[in-house]
Structures are given as structure tokens and as C-alpha cells.
Amino acid sequence: xxxxxxxxTMNVMYINECRPTQAKCFTEKYGTNQCMIAVRENLMKxxxxxxxxxxxxxxxxxxxxxxxxxxxxxxxxxxxEYVKGIFRRLREHEYDEELMRLYIVGGGSCMIKNFxxxxxxxxxxxxxxxxxxxxxxxxxxRKLRRNGGAV
Length: 151
Prior knowledge:
It is a single chain. A hairpin with a 4-residue loop joins strand 1 (2-5) and strand 2 (10-16). The protein contains five helices and five strands. By secondary structure, the chain is of the alpha/beta class. The model has no long low-confidence stretch (mean pLDDT 93).
């Protein structure tokens, strides 16, 4: 299974014998932006603060920031719950760690890396936020070569 976690959506695709299964491709409105919104709402509810987006982004990307422990804990706990939601949605699409590998790409891969407890032998995280674009570029190049340079 491949999960591309972007800013606004998470695209899920089954891959069998190196080929995507078209009937099993799904898009969920569950990207990194929704996590940021959840964190902002929780901080406002708990402490009545509106934290700078660059600080939130740093915590989501790296798991740390130079802020007080109570704010960092609130952010990481919210992000942890959000990542659990990602895996709930994947299981709704029949993800089973024992039956398949999970490949995670996109900007949201950092959330999985920082906030999920996963089997690193079964969940492969590609932190390159351009991985999907590079994959499409590779496919386009192959098609061009096959068609003698014609699109």
C-alpha cells in the first residue's frame, strides 16, 4: 500500500506486482493542514493562545521546538492523535501491517516519522517531499522513450 500524505489530502493506492490497482485508489481529506488546524484549535482550547505557524511547522516536521514543555506536549499529543487517525483511515481501506508493506511519501511523512510507533521493517517512509513528482517524472520519461519521444 502507498500513502501519499499531502497538505490537504492523503491518497492511498494498492500496488500489486509493481502495478497500481486502479479499483483500490482512494483520496481522504486528511492531510497535514488538517493536523495543523487540530493543533491550533487544541492550543486555543487549552491555553487560549494562537501560536505562530512556523513553530507548529517545526514541531510537526521535527518533533521539537524551543517552546515551553506544556505547549510542546499539547502539540505532540494532538499530532499523535492525528497520526492515529491516519492509521484508522488506512485500516478502513484494508491496511494490515502483517499482510502488506506500507510506503509513506509526501510532506506528511514527517508526521508518521515523528509521531507514529510503526514497525520500521513493514512501514517505509520516504521523507523526500518531491518523491511523488519524481515518480510521475520517471513515468513520463519512460512513456516518452517507449513512444519514440512523442507524447
